[in-house]
């Protein structure tokens, strides 16, 4: 058995074990990088660690640190209430408020599961209280998280864009962001119509119906809002490094509110940081030993470039429904490099399609986001709701890869 095939088998084992044993995929990937790199590829520690994404590590820590402060100060709660007041409490617009708030949270740096964990309890509480379909409300929260999830300063967006840069591919941060936004917005609109959103009518609720205490602006929350705005402007207008900018802003806030800063450090999403850095380190080992070229040539061997691209999209969607979306992207994009290098498929459209296909299925109850929706649903039969989420997730797996393939890859974007 060739070394390249062994390394691919180990990668599959990593995904299977992480899914079935609930072990962080990053830990497994680090162990796999050590085992394969040392025993199969005859690499030393320096060679193995050459694939560690130090720049991405800073981005992940920085944005999640800043967002943890936003959570600790109650700024995110204030944003939810402010959004409800903005639409005048119209019941039919509440699902869209939850969609928009979750999208904003992920767009400014929240990890998708963290944003869903914040909004889902509020959203599904509303659903139970006012007779809104829990599937509609839960799905819009998850799709909202994915709609904003590929902004240039988001965790997913930063991850994909960093991989694209490291692989010297032609990418477009704008196309990536807008593709995910458009696909999830279209899906949300279809769900809203199919699941009875139009029947909600003109009923109004007040923000006070959500919780007993409505958060107010205070100096800490104002400072956080200013910091988030500064991060967006600094990254998009002045081209400042997202990770270093986010950490610097978080440090300034921590100096002013040290108790909050200490709590926020413990709330950095270290499991996600570990997962992404571990997977990319293992991918670095694969690149060093030639597995990436080997796999890319195998995909190319299908003979029809567009069919090969469709196959990659379905692989991303199917595996991601049961495993980490960001981990799948970290592995699939490098594997597609030799395939994209042939120039028969546009890299910009291909990367956007892979990213969307690998994340839009996160409403599956086997994914973290879907599980959060299931756990927070109220006044429902759990088994029935589980089956609804599973069926809906299956529909996403079947339909979306083909749809993004037609919209983004067939036209030849890039």
UniProtKB/TrEMBL annotation:
Residues 1-149 form the Dicarboxylate carrier MatC N-terminal domain. This is Dicarboxylate carrier MatC N-terminal domain-containing protein. Coiled coil: none annotated. Keywords: Membrane, Transmembrane, Transmembrane helix. The chain crosses the membrane at residues 6-36, 48-73, 93-123, 135-155, 175-198, 219-238, 268-286, 298-319, 389-410.
